[in-house]
Every structure is written in C-alpha cells, then in structure tokens.
Amino acid sequence: MPTIAVDKAALYKALGREYTNKEFDELCFDFGIELDEDTTDDPERKGAPELKIEIPANRYDMLCFEGIALNLNVFLGRQSMPKFTLSKPKELLTINITEDTARIRPYFSCAILRGITFDQARYDSFIALQDKLHQNLARQRTLVSIGTHDLSTIEGPFSYDALPPEEIKFSPLNQEKVMNGREMMEFYESDKHLSRYLHIIGDSPVYPIIYDKNRTVLSMPPIINSNHSKITLNTTDVFIDITATDKTKLEIVNHIICAMFSMYCTEPFTVEPVNVVSKHNGESRVTPDLSPRPFQASLSFINSVCGLEESPESWSKLLAKMAYDVRPSETDKDKLDIDIPITRADVLHQADIMEDAAIAYGFNKLPQEFPTSIPAGGAGLPINTLSDIVRLEAKSRWIEVMPLILCSHDENYAWLNQKDDGKAVRLANPKTAEYQIVRTSLVPGLIKTIRENRKHEVPLKIFEVADVCYKDASLERRSRNERHFAAAWAGSKSGFEQVQGLLDTIMLALRYPWIPEGKDRTGEKAKGYWVEGHDDPTYLAGHAAAIYLKSAGKQVQRIGIFGMLHPKVLENFEIPYAMTALELNLESTPQNDVSRQTTRFIVSRYTTSSTATLGTLHGHKAPSFSVIWPTGLVHRATALAAVKTSSSRTSCYEAVHCEAKRFHRTASSTSPSWYISTDDVHVKVERPFSLPTNHCRSPLVSSVLPNYDHTSLPRHALTLDTLFEQTILVQHYSLNFGNEQAYILSICASGVCPTQSLNSSDRGQYSAPPTTKSRNTITNMSPILVTISLLVSLTTAVPAPHHNKHHIEVSLPEPVTLAPRQQQCQVDSCTTMFRDCVKSCDSLQNADWYVYALNNHREWEVY
C-alpha cells in the first residue's frame, strides 16, 4: 500500500478543524485508509510535522494531498464532489501522432491547465503525484509516462514522433548541454533516479519524441523532459503530455492529474482539451473526456450483503459521501443509477459500490450475526493431496524449509555446473543479483539453506515441496509452474543411503513398489519404480542415479534424480561437508491414481452400535460409539485404542495430545518398567530407566479424555514420534478407570528399511510382550500387519496388574527388525492376514469386520 506524507497543519486546515491523533486515526479507519505515523514528536525530523497515511493501492485519486483532502471533505459532508468540465477555447490546440510511434509507445493523451497558481507546497505535490503514479499505476514508467511543460515557452500545433536516437537533439531537464538520444542514454546510466528507466527504450531502434511547431523538443518519454519547457513556480499554463503502452491506464493517469490540480486553475475544476490526431490507428479524439461513467447497482445486492434494508433514497445519500452521484432508477425499483466520477477508476463491479456503501454506512454499525451454516470445502487438487502425502512422510525425520523462489542466474546454472537451457523466467529489472530469475530447480535453495546453517550440528537433513517455473510459449501467460520435491543431506559422510532410504519411504507411501532388475519394468501391467546410474554435471560421476516410474497402462517416465553433489558445486556454494541431494517431479506421478492408493489401509469394526473412526480421517456412519478403535500409520507410527465398558453407559477414550514429560524409575529392582501417573483426564508418560543416547528419540506422552464428543474427533487420533532409530518398538498400555477398561496399543516404526536393533545389553531392560502370539506375529511383517495381529491379541489379553487405579502398567517387548522392502503390503494380503487373525479369536467371531481405505475423494471405501 502506498504511503503518502502530507503536511499536518495544512491538512487539518483543509478539513476545517484540528484533530487529535486518536480522532484522525478513527476518521481514517472509518473511510478505509490508515494513519501510519505522525512525525510531530520525532526528534530527528526536520521541517513541519507530517502525517503519513497508507492508501489502498487502487485509490489513485488519493496519492496526493489534494486527493486526500477532497475525499475526506466529501466523506465528512463538508462539500459535494465537484463537477469536472472542459473549457471551450476558440481554437483547440492540436497534436499529430505519426505512424512510427506504434513501434515504441503507441498511445498518447494530453490536456492543458490554464491559469494555475503554484506555491511551493502545490508545486511539490504536483511533482510528487507524478512520481507516485509512475511508481504504482505506471509500473516504473513501463506502461505510462507523464511530461509537464510550461505552455508559454512552446507553441502548437505539436507532434509526437519516433526517430532514431542520433536524430534527436536537445538539452535535457536541468542541463545546458545539447545531446543526442544516444548520448543522453550514456549520460544517465550513472544517474540513480533515471537509470532505472533506460532499459524501457534502450534497445529500440527509435526513441519517442515530442516537438512543438518550431521543432523545439518538449520531452523524450519515458526518460526526460526538455530543459526548455520546464515548469517553475511562476508557470500559469501547464501542458500535460502522456504516452503509454496501455490505453486504459493512459486515460486514468490523465484524469487523475487533471482532477487533482484543476482546483488551482482560474476556473476551478475546468480543463482545456486538446485535439489528438492519430489517423493511422483510428485513435483521433479530443482529450481528456471528463464525463462521469454511468453505472447501475442492485439495491437488493447491497442490502443483502450488508445485512440491511435501506431504501434507495437512503443509499443515495450515503453513497454521495463516497463521491458518487446516485439516484433511484426510473425503470427498475431494484436498481440505482450511479454516475462514477473520473477519479474513481477503481470501480469495476457492483461489489465495489457495495463496499463503499458499507463504508459510508459504517462498518462498525453493520449488524453482526453468526452464520446459519458452514459451507463445506470442495475437494482439494490432486497435486496438493500428493504434496501433503510426500510432506508427511519426509517430516518424520527431516526438516522442511521454504527458500525464496527467486535466485541468481549463476546459482541456478553455473554454480550447479549446468548450462543455460533458456527455460528460466527472467525478471525484467532485478534489484539485486540474487533475484534475477525464477528457479527451475529446488536444489539451489536447499544448498543455500545448508550454507547458512553450516554452524549447526551435522547431519543436516532438509526438504522442500514447492513449485518451480519454466517458460512455456504455448500458454497465454508464457510460463508454467511445476510441483517438485527435493531433499538434501549434509554431514561428515555423504548420506547417500539416507537419501535413497527417503526415496524408498516416499515411493512406499505412494504405493509404488520397487521393481528389481530382471523383473518386467515396461509391461502393460507393470507398476513401480527403480533407479539407474546417470551422469549429470551437478553430481559426482558414478555417484548419481535417475529415478524411473512405471504406472499401470502408462509409459515409463523419468521423474527425478539423486546423488552426491560434485565437489565443484560444493565449493561454489561454500559447503564444507559432503552432500547428497534428491529432486522429484511430483507432477510426473499420476495424481488421481496416487491420491486413491496412498492412504494407509485402515482396520475398522462396524456394527449397529459402533462405527469406523480410524486413521487420519474419521468415518460418519453411525451416531453411537460403544467401541472406538482409532488406528493409522502416522509418521510411520501407529496408535490403536480399544475401550471396553462393563456398564450399560457407553463412553470412549481417545488419545489426542502429545507432549514431553520427565521420567522416573520404579522401586522394583527385579523388573524395571514404565509406569504412567494418571488422573481423571490426563495421562502422562514417565520413564523409569535410561535408554542409549544414540537410539533415544523422544518420549511418548498422551492424554485420555473421558466422554469425548465424537462429532469433533481430531484429524489424527494420536501422533507418535519414533523412539529408536531403525527399530520397531511395541508398547502395551492397560488403562483402568473404575468399571471401564481401555487397552491401547502403539507401534513406533523406524524410518527406512531398518537394519539393526538395540544392543543385546539394552534388551534385558525390557519385559516380555503381552502374549507369545503377538511376539511371533511381529517378525518379518509390515507395520500394518503388525497392527492387525496385535489388535486381536490385546482385545483378548488380560490386563496387567495395577498398583492402583491411578497407575498404568507398561510392558516393553524387545525391538525387532524388518528386512528391506518387507514393509510393502497389498490390499489382498492385508485382508487375508486379518481374516485369519479374526478366525483364531473366538471373541471376535460375532462381529462384522472390514478393511477400509480412503479414495481420491477422501471417502471411505471397503476392500
């Protein structure tokens, strides 16, 4: 939002009274602007006190003192919006536009302010308004440029032409030396103010130029005016020339300047028009056109959105405070006929009228009421669902970062040992060398993040899921975004196996199995991924691999690359560690197929008195909750809870919160174990013994809430951190609350392909698992099958003895390891194993059991 500094005393004088800061701040708020600062008490400030006011970016009519004072006076009812008119001179001045101007800046508009009176404040405001318009609406003069001239020093008719720079000769503003166009461009290369505009016409074979009748130069837009026609405090007649590449913004700029400073003319708010002759493109006309713009707005629309029932007459009076001329329509009772002044180019839709109507009525006076319904959100984009899945998998061990999307050209290419392929979107006028292009890879941002954090303890493990950008001439916007995933490992070792492990975990989550060498990788029904050695200059030769994906019924696609970064790349980015990077193109993955298959398979019990409320989302099939077993793989950890009631009253307990707590050892020296101190609401985990530092991650702490409202179940029933690196740890909780018993099982699974367990000396500290059957079922099974098997065991197990009803016994079986790729499981094998478990348990024979999964519409499906 632009910030406009205005003289405090002058503004209060224009508003007809003095204001306290609080009063003026409230006035600004009511009108929709904001008082940013009052410099009255600033000891370092020199000169008269100023008010710095933030203006909405679309209110070009308030970019100067005159506009702010005019609009606030109209809002306060001190004056009505003036009528802007054109004078009627005996003969209009004319400007002729040549055909060559179409090659550089094709549009032209102009006006004359006669009998204007300048003082220093008005003159400064006149110049400042032009600068504000140049920076905002005109986009650094690329779309529109303004020139103002003392009309008494020049003579019409005028001409607007485009000539080779060598043929253009004049003395630029505040210079005595005559220069040609090329010399001026060289002269202003070192000018801090004008050098930023030279690129606009610098490469053009012709430069735009404006002459008077005697071939005296007025200006060379958009760079500089002539010194001959410069305005001073003594200027009384001002000729305004405006050139543009955008016709709409051309007229807006002309209207704003004329409206704001015609108030100082001999005839206030009167402008002398100029005849523009442009035969080659049909743009001949008289400018400016100061007639208001007719518009219609729906009365019922304004009332319904504002929650009011005001009459047309009432809205007409209120909208007059916002500078509109409003009257009820004579043909439609539901319409308001509105004349929009030339200063309000921001009004495009009746919603803009409604907003101003609400401001005039007073936002604080509008009726307040709660919505009667909550709109349901639409289905998310498949690419966002896919990104969330990948992000969730990576977050368990890696840190997500969000580097800037802009980078330097060298960082994107040369520093990665890559050649410029011409695909990067370049910034036309970058402020610094660091922000030259839009990235085409996520890897430079990750490397720079590692560089800025190299003083931290290694290894550093970071990732990003975000868009890159490429040029695409086939699209209207000439560019396209592409969603990528990238990760980087930096440490004393390369971490190649860790990055490959992350890749395996992500592909497992996306339900794409590894296709080993020798298996069918290209067949019609083949589905999975594999890697092949690949040479890329960014990576060390022989230490990089391309990643290939095959979906059923589709062609093989190369979706990414990973490997050890080349030493030259590390040197370029000043990285002192070995480093491995991975980058995947997520949009190469069939998104609809992935969003259907990637949700973890959920085991659910559903009868007439219980429902499925499992996994990362909850079903809504029955209102009664006598049994609730939330389960799901979250961050490679699974939590399952079963509640058993011995009374007719039904209730449920659900683990909903995790936090770290301190630990204690039990008094028993023969069988050390964990115990959890509880009360009626909270369950806290306390640790009875020390765990190896190199294995311990973080403790699990959960809260159990009695009588939990099932209609507001959390998205994740329980999130468990991995307690041990490369192990699976099973914890069995037996909860006792009076007559109600709950059994909670949690499994904390390792990251990727666990290859080791705890040392044998550590295993003796853990007691045996609840049942032998559970222990045997764990071996060489995927986490989801472990969940199913232990579900059956725990629902039939006898609760461990309690110290009292406020303590919970915890038994920890020794960790077990899984062979590589044995965590992959299919729907059929999952269902078969579960059914076998149910058949072996008599207490579950009379219940109906299903295996649920979420489809791409986030709905439950039965398999």
Secondary-structure blueprint:
Blueprint: E1 3-7, H1 8-15, H2 21-31, E2 34-38, E3 50-54, H3 65-76, E4 85-86, E5 93-97, E6 107-113, H4 120-135, E7 144-150, E8 158-163, E9 169-170, E10 179-180, H5 181-187, H6 199-202, E11 207-211, E12 217-220, E13 224-225, E14 238-244, H7 247-261, E15 270-271, E16 274-277, E17 285-287, E18 293-298, H8 299-306, H9 312-320, E19 325-328, E20 335-340, H10 350-361, H11 382-395, E21 399-400, E22 406-407, H12 409-412, E23 437-438, H13 443-452, E24 460-471, E25 479-491, H14 496-509, E26 528-533, E27 539-550, E28 557-565, H15 567-572, E29 578-585, H16 591-597, E30 602-605, E31 633-634, E32 637-645, E33 674-678, E34 683-686, E35 729-737, E36 740-748, H17 760-763, H18 772-778, H19 783-796, E37 807-811, H20 827-839, E38 849-854, E39 860-862
Parallel strand pairs: 4-15, 5-8, 5-16, 21-24
Antiparallel strand pairs: 1-3, 2-3, 6-14, 7-14, 8-11, 9-10, 11-12, 12-13, 16-17, 18-20, 19-20, 22-23, 24-25, 25-29, 26-27, 27-28, 28-29, 30-38, 31-32, 32-36, 33-34, 33-37, 35-36, 35-37, 38-39
Helix pairs in contact: 8-10, 11-14, 11-16, 18-19, 19-20
